[in-house]
Fold:
Amino acid sequence: MNFTEAVRVAQEQYPKKVTKPIKYGTAGFRSRADALDFIMYRMGLLAGLRARDTSSVIGVMITASHNPVPDNGVKLVDPMGEMLAPAWEVHATTLVNATDEGIASALEGIVSEAHIDTSKKALVFVGRDTRPSSNRLCDAVIAGVTAVGGEFKDFGIVSTPILHYVVTCYNDGGKYGEATVQGYYQKISRAFNKLRSSGTSNGNYDPVILYDGANGVGALAMSEFLNNMKKSLNVTIFNKGEGVLNHLCGADYVKVQQKWPEGVPKTQNVRCVSVDGDADRVIYSYLDSDGKFYMLDGDKIATLVAGYLQELVKGLQLKLGLVQTAYANGASTAYITEKLGVPVACAKTGVKHLHHMALEFNIGVYFEANGHGTVIFSKTAREAIETAAQAKNNSAEKLSQVLDVINETVGDAISDMLLVETVLHARGWSVSDWNDAYTDLPNRQMKVTVADRAVITTTDAERVCVTPEGLQNTINKIVKAFLKGRSFVRPSGTEDIVRIYAEASTQEEADNLAIQVACAVY
Ligand code: 16G
Ligand code: ZN
Structure:
């Protein structure tokens, strides 16, 4: 195949105007939307090649998730819903850093290195969030796919987890579900309705939810779910798109600012579910009778879910484990290992690392504290559960229904919410009962800007600094002075900054620790 058409379209419609090196990071390429057109086009080209390379459908999602409206981004989805393979992240980086004329030789290089048969058909699924720039950028992706002779299917505005779902379903021949948006809503809501068939209330559990759609696609997705879910839950949707995407609301705002989202009435003792701009993260929060704010993040969700599944798998000889990152609150790790006896593994930040580590268990629950996560079941686990369910084992029957509520292909805010609701309902818990399971250690996150964040390198799942020399020693010394102190620093994979995390026995101490460590980095 020759790539003269790819070069022509690049030069005429998507010329590159920057020379600064750009890297495919943890979240793909992400920046201000007006600098992304040539990148989108090239990711279309790459998706066309990757589809041929894997003889499968590849997904391209256009979103900047929880970031502000002027930003956008692009991520490729591999055949089974996974994040793009590392070797192809390198190809993505090479392709984006080529000149317009250099596209041809960059593509040829990828074809020869990956031994791609370019005569094969290529099909790419494209989805986008609600950002005003997403439509234009979607056209650029499609132009790229077309310029390498590929075909595309445009799913329009969808959540990130929906795109992962349809890609997976299409590639496994429909075993996981029907590869359509409707198929996704129906599978998950049908399973949830079934779990609720015995009634919607139980003990302290009340099926009332205030839903914060972050003014994005999560609001659309929830109203679609509600159409399918009849009366299983009593959800009121706020931040439907009348305000600015992710602005003072949504999962990232609630988690980072530790504040109730604007646009949602301050009803006491009712849980609020906040999702992010592409609906792959979820954070719960509530106000008590005094109006005091409480947040239940990915750690709270992970421990709730892992504890419940651990009970259901008893007797099935399956190994269940939880994967967290260094950001997991120390109290959550202590609770889940010491109280519930669930083994915990720690992975580097980024979904692909957690997902990969979760595969080592028969049932792997993985969650980032920011609310991104899911549960994955190995083939062995599925078979064991189905066999036991057919033999009328009660827990296994329940587990097999719970399985269909979960979107295993990636973290999915709404599917995760339905899973949390399932566990709370089963336990007869109110949101404060859930919150009382353990108390988070006070913590603080900070960011500092340094000349070159790449000078900081880490090991041990980012918990220890390797370079610059001496930094880890200094951190150790600082931490020693704090009761229950823990702190680490890592270069961000998505912004040009260094992140600092600190926890200690009081908020004041955690703040103080974070500041001292930040000073050591700066
Ligand atoms: C990306 C990651 C997310 C991670 C975040 C960390 C994926 C799909 N997303 O959004 O998992 O928590 O980056 O950002 O992997 P940071 O490196 O800037 O802290
Ligand atoms: Zn997101």
Remarks:
- Residues 198 and 232 are 10 Å apart (CA to CA).
- The domain at 443-521 is CATH 3.30.310.50 (TATA-Binding Protein).
